Amino acid sequence: MTVPATHALETSLPKGDLAARAARVAAIAAQYAEDVDRQGRFPRETVDALKAEQLLGIQIPAELGGENAGFAAIAEICTTLGQACASSAMIFAMHHIKCSSLVEHAQDNAWQRSFMARVADAQLLLGSATTEGGIGGNLRNSICAIEIDGDTCRLEKDATVISYGSEADAILITSRAHKDAAPSDQVMTVFLKGQYSLEKTVDWDTLGMRGTRSDGFLFKGEAPAVQILPKPFADIAAQSMLAASHILWSGVWYGIAVDAVVRAQSFVRAAARKSQNTAQMGQMPPGALHLAQAANLLQLVRSNVVAALHAYEEAKNDGDKLSSFGFSVTMNNVKIASSETIIDIINQAMLICGIMGYKNGTPYSLGRHLRDAHSARLMISNDRILANTSTMLLVHKLDTHLLG
Ligand SMILES: Cc1cc2nc3c(=O)[nH]c(=O)nc-3n(C[C@H](O)[C@H](O)[C@H](O)COP(=O)(O)OP(=O)(O)OC[C@H]3O[C@@H](n4cnc5c(N)ncnc54)[C@H](O)[C@@H]3O)c2cc1C
Question: Where does the record place a coiled coil (predicted)?
Answer without folding.
Answer: none
